[in-house]
Amino acid sequence: MNNDTTFVLTDDENRQARATTEQLTQVEPRLVDAPDWLHACRGSSAELPSRLRRRLAEFRNDPGDHGSLLVRNLPVVVDRPTPADPGSVERDATTGAALIGMVSMQLGDLIAYRNEKSGALVQNVVPVPGQEAQQSNAGSTRLEMHIENAFHPHRPDYVGLLCVRSDHERVAGLQIACVRRAVDTLPGDVRTVLGEPRFVTDAPPSFGGGSAAAPRHAVLTGHPDDPDIRVDFHATHGCDVPAKDALEILRDALTAVTETLVLEPGDLALVDNRVALHGRTLFTPRYDGEDRWLYRTFVHLDHRRSRAFRSRDGHVLD
Ligand SMILES: O=C(O)CCC(=O)C(=O)O
Ligand SMILES: [Fe+2]
């Protein structure tokens, strides 16, 4: 198992990736969600520096004890103010969109959800005026630890977060906590409860909201010593007292292994959404066009598996 959580491109690799990226940004119609552009992106992803491709193949095979990989020194160029409109997405084939697209495609296939950020494959994670306290990526108060789309039957296998711009004070921390480093510290009876369908996760309002119709699910599944995890500490609730208690014990165990990364432009965090949660520390936006800006992608490993949820065999899940 490779537990090295950081991969830094050398300057030569940065130049090589820049050349591939520049070519890809010129491919018509220069729109991320267009099938022709996505096809070109898949091809270009095979031309990323070979050392990076090897590391990504290892990460796909085994995400390590930290369940995440930070790729640094990617050649991101930004020539626009940070957007601040609600639900904003990146439709243009910018250098950043090309980079996160290519790296994501070395792991699997890009997906999005029709009810979230208008189904765009590359989404902006930016603070939005008036949404400071929201438990969404438009907020700037602390964002609780979660796996992505915990409520959904087809959750992404990976989440990619590429930093285009840091926050002014360089304090906004992406937080990551992997169940692989916490599971041993949980008492046996707590693990048993977490492995039973005694939890519900509310869907966000854009997906119909609430937990009334939400099916009960387990928080830990798979091998008891190396489980997958399905929890969002804002949206998941225990259905009985032992289940509620077990969630609190799990939260403490994950807090003890939480790592915080202040991303810099050109840093891409890849999180294995089956074993690791993510969240964000508080920061103060200024809404001056220079605020923190990440691009986000979702990736799944088996495109075919979700075919019934995708009309016209596209990338957007209904
Ligand atoms: O802002 C961050 O660092 C993470 C936000 C987040 O959880 C997301 O966009 O899925
Ligand atoms: Fe998230």
TrEMBL record:
Keyword Oxidoreductase belongs to the record: yes
* TauD/TfdA-like domain residues: 65-297
UniProt KW Repeat keyword = no
Q: Name one GO molecular function term.
A: dioxygenase activity
InterPro entries listed in its UniProt record:
Clavaminate_syn-like, TauD-like_sf, TauD/TfdA-like
Residues engaged in binding Fe cation: H146, E148, H278
User: Entry's Pfam families?
Assistant: TauD
Q: Which residues form the signal peptide?
A: none
Q: What keywords tag this UniProt record? A: Dioxygenase, Iron, Metal-binding, Oxidoreductase
Q: What SUPFAM superfamilies has UniProt attached to this entry?
A: Clavaminate synthase-like (SSF51197)
Return the similarity comment: Belongs to the clavaminate synthase family.
The name this protein goes by in its record:
Putative taurine catabolism dioxygenase
The source organism is: Saccharomonospora cyanea NA-134
